[in-house]
Specification:
2 domains; alpha/beta; 41% helix; 11 helices; Hypothetical Protein Tm841, Chain: A,domain 3; Rossmann fold; 13 strands
Length: 281
């Protein structure tokens, strides 16, 4: 078995140290704002994004990497790898997956598998991470695919949002939910279902939302050994608090903090706190 390369897109929100440790290639999604194009996490930082969101009247748009971006990545990796596993954001959320498939069909110097993570953010990140770990152990393509399915079927994402405005304008959640959150000043907790954000519960304050996240974790983890990633958009202090609480309360095989990339933050705005986890059988 030759070398297997692992590729993903920047929506995976993996901590930089894990990307480097496991040799994961990340293709950046694009942010378009006032006539300028920015590569996610390359040309603009999260702090720059939130500063501009607070100051500006226009909202950014996002788009998938181009076919050329993926083609360039695949051809470069094919110089050393025999197989490329390209694992991406749910196609219900973005054109990234389909664009990667189009590029993969143009490459004949390596065997390329384009995989739908069926999720997003750090949940996607965990699917990618476990694939990269399996590849590093010398697993076959079939074994890596089995590992992907194992994690993909178990990983769950929950997040509290201080506003639904950005999700609404980005087309990620219905107008009714947006108006409900605004009218009652709720701090909704969302979860991902089939790659689409939906409302799990509706705490009235940020403090109650924090407690609700821990309650959900208690209920869902239920004493099992868990792999956990705390994620946030411009609330690092709360992320550290949640990290410490979860590390103390649960049997964590691993636990990390990750910050939303600018593209993900553009859809949620500042003020997101959540966690992703999957449990071993």
């Amino acid at each position: 078995m030759g070398k297997i390369a692992i590729v993903t897109d920047s929506a995976a929100n993996l901590p930089e140290e894990l990307i480097k440790e496991y040799g994961i290639t990340v293709v950046p999604i694009y942010l378009h704002w006032n006539g300028e194009d920015y590569r996610d996490g390359v040309d603009i930082t999260p702090s720059e994004l939130y500063k501009r969101l607070r100051e500006g009247k226009t909202l950014p748009k996002t788009s998938a990497p181009s076919v050329g971006d993926f083609l360039h990545t695949y051809l470069r990796l094919a110089e050393e790898a025999d197989v490329i596993l390209s694992i991406h954001l749910s196609p219900s959320l973005s054109a990234v997956y389909e664009t990667a498939r189009t590029a993969a069909e143009m490459v004949d110097t390596a065997e390329i598998y384009v995989v739908n993570s069926q999720t997003a953010a750090a949940a996607q990140g965990f699917v990618v991470l476990e694939a990269a770990r399996a590849a590093q152990r010398g697993a076959s393509v079939e074994e890596i695919m089995q590992r992907i399915e194992y994690v993909r079927s178990r990983v769950q994402l929950f997040a509290a949002l201080s506003t639904l405005k950005y999700l609404y304008f980005g087309g990620r959640i219905g107008l009714a939910a947006t108006l409900l959150g605004s009218a009652l000043q709720l701090t909704p907790i969302l979860y991902l279902r089939d790659g689409v954000a939906d409302v799990w519960s509706k705490p009235r304050t940020w403090k109650k939302a924090f407690r609700e996240l821990l309650r959900i974790a208690e209920q869902k983890i239920d004493g099992k050994r868990a792999h956990v990633m705390v994620m946030h958009a411009d609330v690092p202090g709360d992320a550290v608090r949640l990290y410490n609480e979860m590390k103390e309360r649960f049997d964590c095989a691993e636990i990390y903090i990750t910050e939303f990339t600018p593209v993900m933050g553009a859809h949620t705005g500042p003020g997101l706190l959540g966690f992703v986890f999957w449990c071993e059988d």
